[in-house]
Amino acid sequence: MTNPNDEPTLHGLSDIRRYFYRNETPTFFISATNFNLIGIDEWVRSFRFINYIDCFDGEHPSVFVPSEAPHRPFTSIEDINNYLLEHKEVVDYLKTRLGEGRGRAVFLFFDETTEALCKELGLDVCFPPAKLRTMVDDKIETTRIGNRAGIASVPNVLTKVDSYKHLRETTKALGEQLVLQTAFGDSGHTTFFVSNEEEYQRHEAEILEAPEVKVMKRIRCRGAAQEACVTRHGTIVGPLMTELVGFPSLTPYKGGWCGNEVLADSFTQDVRDQARAMTIAFGNELKELGYRGYFELDFLRDLDTDTLYLGEVNPRITGASAMTNLAAFAHADAPLFLFHLLEFSGVPFELDVDEINERWSDPSNIDGWGQLVMKHTGDVAEIVTGAPRSGVYRLMPDGTAEFIRVQTHRRTVEREDEGFFLRITKPGDWLYEGADLGILITPGRLMTDEFELNDRARRWIDAIHGCYVSHVPEGPHAIASPVAEVGNFKML
User: Smallest Cα–Cα separation from 108: which of 66, 129, 77, 65?
Assistant: First the structure.
């Protein structure tokens, strides 16, 4: 993107913050919900959310949700975004906001169809091309990028699997217990644990269908995540976060992501420094590929050897972005996402990336917060008749959650018995296995030192679930397929 207005060079954080405070280019986050970039509208003037789900019942001043229109069943976030961009009410809304000028669009996921629609509507997509993002998102390619950057993955073999016998012959050096991953997938859907032929046969069709599979040695590990942004001046790195994975009270998916913690003492300084160096190296390799902007790395820490391995990359904003962009260091300097938007603004800027990374890695700049991403874990489809509002709640002594006030993000939450809840499933929606209920963000720890949910987290989960009322419908609606209507796919 060029600099059509010949804007002066921005020097440092003060200039950058002022630039976005005065921003006049309409900028839109188009997605199922506004969760991933929640709060950014307070940093960027003329920033609006165009969403399919109204998490705030019309009370959020920066959210636009069109009325429901006929559409094909959604199978992905890309489908939702393309539906929105073709919706007459959205087209009219964009025309009003854009006038005779152009705007910017940001997405969680998008494809070539999305890019074409944006071009027609006068929107510049503020991300690398979909084709490049898809290539980077390939778990097999991620491993190769990491190898080129000098970042080790868990001992692995990249291979086309023809049979169980072939699998064993090809991966003898990895031991009996294996973890197989196909190129794409989320929340553990395409990660298979295989220690014998019976376990292999459960997933044989998916394994054989894949052109190439990543086969890893199974290790005892804990997950961690780190968001970053590739800029022309280097890669800016956010805090290292723990990951909540596979808790049955939060997700029905073994290995499924279900939350994060940002805590100063979750990792030693050595581990944080190692992860930061790996993330910068990976960002530099992405830059060589022509990629710039936001990305997130998942790490696996071997509990037996204390080795930190590359897990996978998400070339986008993620479900952890709200934690990164609302952190204390972000309010002291600027949210990580602002540097992403700056890369695509066409405005020249100077920035001391090393200084920012050093400051953001200081434990004194990391405040303690956690988030619980709650899915419906039952396997019976039900219709919701009552659901909690988005806003601030207090955890009461009797184990219930009491609504305190309307709020658009966690800003006014100060105590560990309070939390901000963003509702996704509302009255009239279906509850089905894997459906997203909502996200709770609260100060303090959610896990023990043994990486189990602590008592406070369990009480919060029970309290929020207790706010939902649902029933199994009778009559003709009882045989309707809720998954066909709303899509059983990752919303965050």
Answer: 77
- CA-CA distance, 272 to 277, in Å (whole number)? 9
Quick one: CA torsion of 129, 338, 60, 412, rounded to 10 degrees?
A: 140
**Which of 255, 300, 256, 295 shows the shortest CA–CA distance to 274?**
300
Determine the pLDDT at residue 265. 83
Cα 367 to its chain centre, rounded Å, is: 20
* Cα distances (Å, whole numbers) of residue 41 to 29, 199, 245: 10, 48, 30
- CB-count exposure of residue 213 (10 Å: 0-12, 13-18, 19+): buried
How crowded is residue 350: how many other Cβ atoms within 10 Å of its Cβ? 12
Chain centroid to Cα 245, Å, comes to: 14
**189 vs 50: which has the higher pLDDT:** 50
Instruction: Tell me how far apart the alpha carbons of residues 41 and 21 are, in angstroms, rounded to a whole number.
Output: 10
Summarised one tens digit per residue, pLDDT across range 2-32 is: 444 577 999 999 999 999 999 999 999 999 9
Q: Do residues 438 and 467 touch, judged by C-beta distance below 8 A?
A: no
Tell me if 244 sits within 8 A of 447, measured CB to CB: yes
User: Would you say residue 43 has pLDDT above 70?
Assistant: yes
- The residue assigned the tokens 């303690």 is 368
Please tell me the distance from the alpha carbon of residue 289 to that of residue 208, in angstroms, as a whole number: 30
* Class of residue 367 by CB neighbours under 10 A (exposed 0-12, middle 13-18, buried 19+): middle
Each residue's pLDDT tens digit, 243-286: 999 999 999 987 789 999 998 888 888 999 999 999 999 999 99
**Two structure tokens written together for 13:** 């954080």
